[in-house]
Amino acid sequence: MKIFCCKEHVELALDIIVDETEMVPLLNEITETEESINCGYCQKEAIYVVGN
């Protein structure tokens, strides 16, 4: 499971991963890519990927 998120929604994404997987999530900053990825909550540009 992976959630792409902006700075404003990183805590929400962390909480959701913990609730759904009951595991400590990994938080990584997104490196430059050819195409931008949007936040799963507000459609701003995502800067983090939260996953397990």
Q: How does this model look, in words?
A:
- It is built from one helix and three strands, in the order βαββ.
- The chain is of the alpha+beta class and 52 residues long.
- It has a three-stranded antiparallel beta sheet, with helices on one face.
- The longest helix has 12 residues, at 10-21.
- The radius of gyration is 10 Å and the shape is globular.
- The mean pLDDT is 92.
Summary?
This protein is α+β, with helices and mostly antiparallel strands. The protein has one helix at 10-21, and strands at 2-5, 26-29, 48-51. The N and C termini lie close together (6 Å).
SSE map:
Elements: E1 2-5, H1 10-21, E2 26-29, E3 48-51
Antiparallel strand pairs: 1-3, 2-3
Q: Keyphrases for this structure?
A:
52 residues, alpha+beta, three-stranded antiparallel sheet, 3 strands, globular
Overall form: globular
Task: Specify the helix fraction band.
Answer: 10-25%
Distance between the termini: 6 Å
Report strand %.
15-25%
What's the order of the H and E elements?
Answer: EHEE
Largest sheet: 3 strands, antiparallel
Number of strands: 3
Overall radius of gyration: 10 Å
Low-confidence stretches: none
Q: Give me the side-by-side strand order of the main sheet.
A: 1-3-2
Helix count, per DSSP?
A: 1
Average residue pLDDT: 92
- The helix-and-strand class reads alpha+beta
